[in-house]
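REQUEST ID: PR-0412
SUBMITTED BY: lab tech R.K.
PRIORITY: routine
TASK: structure prediction, single protein chain
INPUT:
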Amino acid sequence: MLQVRGEPQLQRLSALVLFAGTLVFAINLVDSFIQELSPGAADRLVWSPDMIGCALFLVSGQMAMAGIAGGFWRVWRRRDLGWWIIAVNQLGSVLFMVSAVASFVRPTSGDALSTGIANWGTFTGALCFAVAGAMQEFEHPLGPRRSRSPS
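STATUS: complete
OUTPUT:
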């Protein structure tokens, strides 16, 4: 989970919205295993929760940005690793939203708008989440955490 310094209320609210988005994505995941859905059912059971989850991730990321920057509009903090972690994570959320939009199933043909963009958005969004997670290792005030072996 993102660790956000700054406004404690925004931290908690951001974490709550992120958790809600994660739950919605879980619904999306379970529904995606249902075989032979009609295009309308696929949009209702898979695409709609995907869009809602993406929107919640975007809202959570914006709250985290506001929490670390001290306001919704003062966000650029190029020397703050915490800010960069949130920015990379937010980019991942945007790419997931692009993927979600591209995966809309056309009612007439039953095909997604763009499977290639949907796959690309999912892959690059997940890559952003992984990079942001790795960056958190270096955010610790004493530097990277090292395992200490008993001497």
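NOTES: The helical segments are 8-32, 39-69, 81-102, 115-136.
REVIEWED BY: pending
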